[in-house]
Amino acid sequence: MDYKRMENNIIENIKEEIAILNFQKEENLSSSQTEKELKFSINKIALFIFSLTIISSGCILAINTFKKTDNINRKYALGRIINLNEEKNYIGNVNMEYSYSGDIGIKVNNIILSDNDLDIILDLDFSKKILNKNSVLVNYIVYDENNNIYSYGDCNILDRSKNYRKFCRDMNINYQKENWRDNIYAKSQAQNNLLETDERLITQLAIKSDKRLPNSKKIFIRIFDIGYLDNMNFSSISNNNEWILEINIPDEYYNRTNIELDAINSTKHFELNSAYITNTSMTLIAKLQGVEGNISNKVIVVDENGKEYESQLIYRNGNLFTLAFDIKKSTVTNKLYIKVLSNDEFEKIELVRK
Amino acid sequence: MNTQNQIKYYISNGELDIEAIIRNYTVYIHKIISNIDTCKNLSTEDIEEIIDDTFLVIWKNSNKLDKDKLFTSYIAGVTKNIVKAKYRQNRELIMHNNIEDFENLLVSDFNIEEILSVKAKNRMIQNQLRKLKNIDRQIFIMYYYYSMKTKEISQKLGLRDMTVRTKLHRIRNKIKESWNKNGL
To answer: Do residues A121 and A109 touch, judged by C-beta distance below 8 A?
Structure first.
């Protein structure tokens, strides 16, 4: 048996097969069709309806109806990990065409909204203006019809509030120079590039808050700028073009419900403020004493099957911590416990449903 | 041939080094196949196909692999299930060596039949790819397998960037046409 020849044949064949699979995945993402992970129940989430909003004459519009990775991977490197199988009945699919401003088109592919998470999947078309940079970022603001600001992301290191001030002027909102970030819900936000090719960028905006996100009828995403960081300086590639995308929120998101929790006991190092579980994750707000260093493996939630969930720190205000856990309404067990590690000892707190 | 390294040694930049895996495990998989009664009279091409299928299934399920285990923990289970799927018969698959049941458990959620079905459908696309000019096939592989950018491809092949992009655009259209024609 000529194993060398066999190995060479197999290698050439596998390269073709993998290339074809990657090509198909790219095509499936592009048509927002039924790549298996993106199947979800349209009956549960209404199709979104979109409309045009004009802010100012300097702003060109996004109209609408809602890196390169080697292997298009639905687990995100930063921010919240979306498990598409667990959340397939809760993800909103947004039926939207690209809106072009200059040579770049943008649309929203998906949105997930709960009391503690907002995830937006943006899809950018560069086919008219080839992208030859990696790690492209967007400067954006997400807000609702009542001007509640979900999130503001700006990579202009020298003047982080520049676009925010512009937004306040356009919307006739009072800009408070001191503590301007206090009005923004997001305390943890990440931009994860899922697909980056010469012609296309698909990016996730993952937003978490220490406060419950508002009940909005409409969400707006305004993109001020697209560019990349070059030695900590932001270089724009969008030539002063801007986009605004508007999404009408369906009743399933607007009327969402949660599992509210209470603690049976408190300990020397832990006192619960509030805890709740949504369709996307669990939030725990508590006072911690004597718990230092990396929190993620010092405050753990354990379910009744013994499965442990490490925490993600969302926000800290003195000794009041807001933590997130990857537990959802669809996966939570009847009993939950918190384990708190302090001075090499674990304390245990039992959680019950209110 | 080295089959004693843990899976993590075959991971580079978060991806499986499939070529190294093929070099180290082809002979091993052949030995497994040789011990299956149903496979006693298979041609070299059929054996090669089963081995190819095994590597493709492993690659597709790379995120499910326990990186501290050896590949041998998974390979026998995958190979056995592929043979079962391909040569499904009424009688039980008889193997002369002891394959632990735990290997089968490890791969029970690997969707082997589905992957084989997709592979069979993609055979038509593969044939279309092989009919392309050599340079076009190279560009496709460099873009979709090696994930190179068009600029890198153009430098490697001594072409202009625009030429590479145009060729890629045409290749995609040809493949999509074949795809749609065959109802995929």
So the answer is: yes
**What's the topology of domain B132-181?**
Arc Repressor Mutant, subunit A (1.10.10)
Q: ipTM score here? A: 0.86
CB contact under 8 A, A1 and B175: no
Which chain A residue has its CA at the smallest distance from B125's CA? A20
Question: Most B CBs within 10 Å: which of A5, A21, A31, as the mutation test of the B interface?
Answer: A21
Across A180-194, average pLDDT? 84
Q: Which ranges in chain A belong to alpha helices (H)?
A: 3-30, 84-87, 162-171, 251-254
Record the tokens describing residue B102, joined without a space: 């735990």
Nearest to A327, CA basis, from A337, A342, A316: A337
Q: How much is the pLDDT for A86?
A: 52
**pLDDT at site A115:** 94
Candidate CATH numbers 2.60.40.1630, 3.40.50.10840, 3.40.640.10, 1.10.10.10; the one for domain A35-254? 2.60.40.1630
In 3D, which of A128, A151, A123 has the Cα closest to residue A139? A151
Q: What are phi and psi of B167, to 5 degrees?
A: -60, -45
pLDDT band at A299, cuts 50/70/90? very high
So where are chain A's domains? 1-31, 35-254, 259-353
Q: How far apart are CA B41 and CA B84, in angstroms?
A: 15
The answer to whether A78 faces chain B, any CB pair under 8 Å, is: no
Domain ranges across chain B = 7-115, 132-181
Query: At the fourth CATH level, which superfamily is domain A259-353?
Result: Immunoglobulins (2.60.40.10)
Q: Which residues of B111-150 are buried (b: 16+ CB within 10 A; e: fewer)?
A: bbeebbebbeebeebeebbeebeeebbebbbbbbbebbbb
Contact B177/A at CB under 8 A: no
Separation CA B78–CA B97 (nearest Å): 15
Q: Please state the length of chain A.
A: 354
Query: Is there a common fold for A35-254 and A259-353?
Result: yes
pLDDT one-digit tens code per residue, B112-164: 777 877 787 788 888 888 888 999 999 999 999 988 888 889 999 999 888 89
Q: Which of residues 18-37 of B touch A (CB under 8 A)?
A: 18-19, 22-23, 26-27, 30
- Cβ-Cβ pairs closer than 8 A, A with B, add up to 89
Q: What is the pTM of this model?
A: 0.55
User: Is any Cβ of chain B less than 8 angstroms from the Cβ of A264?
Assistant: no
